[in-house]
């Protein structure tokens, strides 16, 4: 195999490497899209759980008010409608302590992880400046393949192809690295959201037990009044 054939083989290998890097970048972009849709679903699930917590909090307040009304009715029946100690409970009074001293915290105790807004749009001049800076940084970080002396052997065309393919590979690898960093940060945000939702699920379960007991208590008191 002569020098020409060796260089042609190197060019073919370089092109295959470039194609592999491009496929790797496409896979990273697909993973970013999947992660984005998963994050959106998690956020919606978290919002739904927070709405459930809010509804259960309102239900607890209503049941606590019902308990006060039933106590008021019992006092009125035992004493007199005009007894000074029989003060009708004020509906505006919010009984936030329906969970009890050892109960779970109200929904406001958990806030969803702050979501980053869309990146600020750059002007055309800013994009060109950013691209030039990235190109300069890439050139400084990777000088390319040394092909000095190949032109004298009549292999300048193959050497140019190798240089071009190498630059393209470097660009793909840089984009893959940035994409992986974004996936890592996205995974951390998803982990935070999942931990928060686990806490929400625990609180909802605790609140459900308390509300069930309160509802049974109100029903018993209500039947006593019939």
From TrEMBL:
Keyword ATP-binding: no
Keyword Methyltransferase: no
Location, primary (coarse class): membrane
Any coiled-coil regions, as ranges: 180-207
CDD domains assigned to the protein according to its UniProt record, in alphabetical order: SNARE_Qc, SNARE_SNAP25N_23N_29N_SEC9N
Gene3D superfamilies given in the database record: 1.20.5.110
InterPro entries (UniProt xref): NPSN/SNAP25-like_N_SNARE, T_SNARE_dom
Stretch list, region Disordered: 93-130
Keywords of the record: Coiled coil, Membrane, Protein transport, Transport
Domain T-SNARE coiled-coil homology: 11-73, 163-225
Cited PANTHER family: SYNAPTOSOMAL ASSOCIATED PROTEIN, SYNAPTOSOMAL-ASSOCIATED PROTEIN 29
Family: Belongs to the SNAP-25 family.
Protein known as: t-SNARE coiled-coil homology domain-containing protein
Species of the source: Tetradesmus obliquus (Green alga)
